[in-house]
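Task: sequence in, structure out. Protein: TAF domain-containing protein.
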Amino acid sequence: MRHSKRTNLLVEDVDYALRAKNIEPLWGFASTDTLSFRRTTSAVGNLYFIDEEEIDLTKVLAAELPPVPQETSYTAHWLAVEGVQPAIPQNPTPAELKSHPAFSGLQSSAIPSSSKQPPESQNLTTKEHLSRELRLYFDRVTAAALSNDQSSRNAALASLSGDPGLHQLVPYLIQFAAEKITTTLSHPEPSMQYLRDALQILESILSNPHSYLEPYLHQILPSILTCLLSSSFPSSPVTDDLEREIRCTAASLLKSQLNRYQHSYPTLRTRILKTLTKSLIDPQSTDRNQLGAIVGVKYLGLEPTKTVLSQNIKAFGESLDLSLSEGKADQIRLDNLIKETLKIMSEAYSEQQIHRKTNSKSKKKLRSIPAQDELEAEVGVQFAARLMSTSDEEETRLAYTFIKESTQTSDTDDSEEDEERSEHAEEEETTKMDVVEEKQ
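Result:
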């Protein structure tokens, strides 16, 4: 520095001096900022020092202490959920992502700019965000699931029910099945085979253990209830068995989804039962709506059979009488509907008796069928006629006993609670008298 007649000391000056003395140079990172030195004279000659700001110690002592730094801690947040980045403060915003050079370069390479193409057509649709392989898989698996080839259909359904890599396709598959169900039933002459295939696609998706379906529950349940409660099925002896199969499949799916999500959504079960009850007793409901409600109640178990079917049996019977008097329903279909209802209630009563026997409760006796006038006042004309004319007396008594016990459940529970309260009161009174006698 002295030989160069400079006032700034550089890193190279130190390195050159060390090399001249045959000393190992200093290892490290060189700084691009130069240090500014001031020169002063002294008895030994020129002296150089760094020009630094003078610090007043009085001000330093009078200044407030800085806040104590927080301890080192770790937090976790969701980087992505089901392939979608959640909008939380820890993740970058969409505006920041678009301004990132990597994102803008990827977008420009994916969408070539054209002055002739309008800007609306350059926007990506939701499905185009999928990879080419997933889009090809979607087209082929949906075509195979709806084809007439049984082997191709089975292979497609097996893939939908077991493939672990379908989480990005789940919303599109559910939407596809829902649209096919709605489109088929809106046709004047719906194809039952096509409806069954669409429902089987939905069934396969719901049975896949690797898929997270809770965000799409609002799309799944309407499709299931549509297949269960629809009145748009064609009326012919050929399609009756297929209609029954579709309704039973939908009821089974409804039961599985209800058992799966009723703890996460406490009101879900109540809302489903209200929907079934409305289809059962609504005067505008047809016999097909009521058949779907009965099948759904049967699959949901004993308690829904009590709350929906038995406790609304009078309103149900009156709606059947009204439909028959107005000519909206066929007598044969109504007879089959009543027969199915009585069978479900007799089976429910048998199940209830088995449950009572398991819990060491006394088995109750079957009730006798009352007179026809009294029976018509309780269950309606059509149900009363069926109960009076059936050849299976045991099934009839089982169903009638189940109806009476279900309608009197609340009164029985109240009476049992009153008995328990009176027993507890007597025990407390006896205990008090014993204590008084001991003191005397």
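The first strand starts at residue 8 and ends at 9.
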